[in-house]
């Protein structure tokens, strides 16, 4: 890639984002407006679209979403789960119960759809996720389990080996907690997806991983985690330039 190609990357990123934004669903458009009014972070449109596609491609039926008011990612995962069941792409459904599930059943609570376990340590974030799920149109077949707790506290209580995907966003502490439990929680060949891997979205970000001088909490955590995951023999990894960096790690 030559210098001119690199200089066009920012324009290419904007083009992709704008293209996806123009084609997003009414639910997503409304959600972005609500998130903006509430002062909650809105993730990349291309990233949300990719997550939805990833759920469908992997035929995932049980997913853990860890974030801090991560509404856009949550809706994308619900849409992906609904797409899996609408296409009849699944095998048998195996829920992943916890000792305190705090489950909010959807319109189809007989487990004829997928399950999303949303973990958020912020009260504002988890309430926003619950409102999102309540306001979804009745065709959603996904069951939501929304838990207001730190990931490091809640994840060890979940059953092992029954989740096809773990998606992580938000504050720095979410990432290490998810990585620590990923091998145990994921089924064979399951995925852990780390959003904002370049640490550009933190409240004290100073350029993220592309700036060696950025010593913010998230940048420091992501540098360590990137090294740990890439060198972990239990996972195959790929770092891709979607959103502000996605790291995909598949359990071997």
TrEMBL record:
Q: Where is the composition biased (Basic and acidic residues)?
A: 100-111
Ordered alphabetically, the record's keywords are: Methyltransferase, Transferase
Q: Which residues form a coiled coil?
A: none
Q: Name one GO molecular function term.
A: methyltransferase activity
Q: Where is this region: Disordered?
A: 89-117
Q: Which Gene3D superfamilies match?
A: Vaccinia Virus protein VP39
Protein name per the record: Methyltransferase
What's a single GO BP term from this record? Answer: methylation
- Native organism is Bifidobacterium aemilianum
């Amino acid at each position: 890639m030559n210098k001119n190609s690199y200089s066009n990357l920012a324009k290419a990123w904007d083009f992709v984002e704008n293209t996806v934004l123009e084609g997003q669903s009414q639910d997503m458009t409304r959600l972005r407006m609500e998130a903006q009014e509430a002062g909650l972070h809105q993730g990349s449109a291309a990233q949300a679209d990719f997550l939805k596609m990833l759920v469908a491609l992997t035929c995932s039926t049980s997913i853990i979403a860890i974030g801090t008011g991560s509404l856009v990612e949550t809706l994308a995962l619900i849409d992906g789960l609904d797409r899996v069941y609408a296409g009849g792409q699944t095998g048998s459904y195996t829920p992943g119960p916890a000792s305190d599930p705090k489950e909010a059943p959807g319109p189809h609570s007989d487990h004829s759809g997928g399950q999303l376990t949303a973990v958020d340590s912020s009260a504002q974030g988890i309430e926003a996720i619950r409102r999102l799920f309540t306001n979804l149109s009745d065709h959603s077949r996904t069951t939501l389990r929304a838990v207001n707790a730190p990931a490091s506290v809640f994840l060890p209580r979940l059953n092992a080996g029954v989740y096809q995907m773990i998606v992580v966003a938000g504050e720095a502490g979410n990432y290490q907690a998810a990585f620590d439990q990923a091998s145990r929680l994921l089924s064979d060949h399951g995925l852990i997806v780390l959003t904002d891997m370049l640490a550009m979205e933190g409240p004290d970000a100073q350029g993220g991983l592309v700036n060696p001088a950025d010593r913010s909490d998230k940048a420091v955590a992501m540098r360590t985690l990137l090294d740990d995951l890439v060198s972990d023999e239990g996972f195959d990894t790929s770092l891709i330039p979607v959103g502000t960096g996605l790291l995909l790690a598949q359990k071997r």
